What does this fold into?
Amino acid sequence: MKNVIENKCFFLSSVTSITNLPDESLKEICFWGRSNVGKSSLLNSITNHNIARISKTPGRTTALNFFEIEKKIRLVDLPGYGYAKRSKVEIYKWNTLILDYLESRKNLLFVFLLIDSRHGIKKNDSEAINLLQTLNNNFFIVLTKIDKINKNDLNNCYSNASKTIKKRNRYNQKIYLTSSKKNQGIKELTKTILEVV
It folds into this structure.
C-alpha cells in the first residue's frame, strides 16, 4: 500500500496567500511544528522521495507547500513556528496564513504536530496545542529525532507528552515515535495516512 504514496505523490503548489489555496475537492493532512523539527525530512521519508526541501537553517519553509497523492489526498507542509530571526512583518504574515488555513480549511482531516524529542513540549508547542484545541482541529503528536536521544530521555519525553495529551487532546491519545534518519515509525505514520486515502 505504501507504493501508492511512493509512486503517486507529487508537488502541487506553494502558497503564500490564503486566496491562492488549492480547491477543497481533496482531503488534507498537514504537518506542523517548531522550525527545524524535521517536517520536511519526515515528508521525504513517508513518500520515499525528496519532495520537500530540507535545510539545516531554521525558517526555510515560508509558505504552505502542498503535495498530492494519486488525486486522493494532499499532504501540507506548514511553516514552522518559534524562529525569531526574521522580520516581524514576515513572522506576522506566516502566523496569519497558518491561522487562516487551520481555521477555515473545511477539508483538513487532521494535523500531525511534530515535537523534537530532544526538547519535549516547549512553550511554543503548548501554544500550538492550545490553538488546535480552540479551533477544534483533530491532531496527533509526533515525536521526531528519537535516534538522537537515549532511551531514558525518550521515555521521559513520551511520558510527559502523554500526560499533556490526556489532558488536552480529546480526539487522539496516540503518540508517534519517529526518526527520519533511521526510518523509525514511518510505517505507522504511513498507515494512518493510507487509512483515509
